[in-house]
Amino acid sequence: MKRNKKIAIVIVAFLAFITFLSSVYVVNETEQVVVTQFGKPVGEPVTTPGLNFKVPFIQTANFFEKRFLEWDGDPNQIPTKDKKYIFVDTYARWQIVDPLQFFKRLRNELGAQSRLDDILDGETRDFIANHNLIEAVRTSNRTPMSSGVIGELIGDSLENIDVGREKIQAMILQAANEQTLDLGLKVLDFRFKRINYVEDVRTQVYERMKSERYRIADKFRSEGQGEASRINGEKERELKTIQSQAFREAEEIMGRADGEAAAIYANAYNRSAASRTLYRFMKSMETFEKTFDNNTHVILSTESDLYNYLKNAD
Description:
Elements: H1 2-23, E1 24-27, E2 31-37, E3 40-41, E4 50-53, E5 59-65, E6 69-72, E7 76-79, E8 85-96, H2 99-105, H3 109-129, H4 133-137, H5 148-156, H6 165-179, E9 185-197, H7 199-269, H8 273-291, H9 305-313
Antiparallel strand pairs: 1-4, 2-3, 2-5, 6-8, 7-8, 8-9
Helix pairs in contact: 3-6
């Protein structure tokens, strides 16, 4: 009898313990709870940490994250407004802001991820398709600070944008939150992780970029050759001017020297007979020295001074 009583006490204590565990739940700082009874929410959601109670075996505590959650989209091939096919890879951060509404509409985080796939991927496709590629890649208009070759290379490849990457991200975020108002969640941030051409278009783009750079290089090369020709032309013109001026000055100097020499000779010739004789002798000797050698044959007139001097020398 006593043994049966002890067994009964143990069973009752065990059932009481199980009942107590079933009626108590603990909410951590990172959690929020929606209590349901037979699958339907009961009361307000519990968002503060602490020890809480519920009806055992009848009510169930459904725990949800209070922290920021991650959404990572799949890369999608999307055509832009200017008909360029690109791969767009995106990611976002979201949070459960109304756990009761979240439970009613989505039940769990898996359902939320699936719903966000539809919303964010759809909005991304719509906004990318309504804007040119450069709007999705660039954030703002840039003015090259460099000049010359680098400045032209950079400036030639830049176009002005009206919207830009950041604004497109903000518009996608706003449009997504308009669709999640009744889902009990909020998209906190949305970003493009990566944007790239599809493989077929990428090769064409690279070839176009190379041909554009070749065109600019040929332009600079042509301008350089033209500038070199201009400099060489100026050099030749200045050289001829300098040579012409030098030749003119040299002729003028030689002319003045010849005039002075002739004046000196004439003055010396006209002084006296002895001076004239000495002058004629010196000039003859100078002519003889410059004209004759051992192999020279000449025919001289008998009236020539050279003939007379040679005859007297014999």
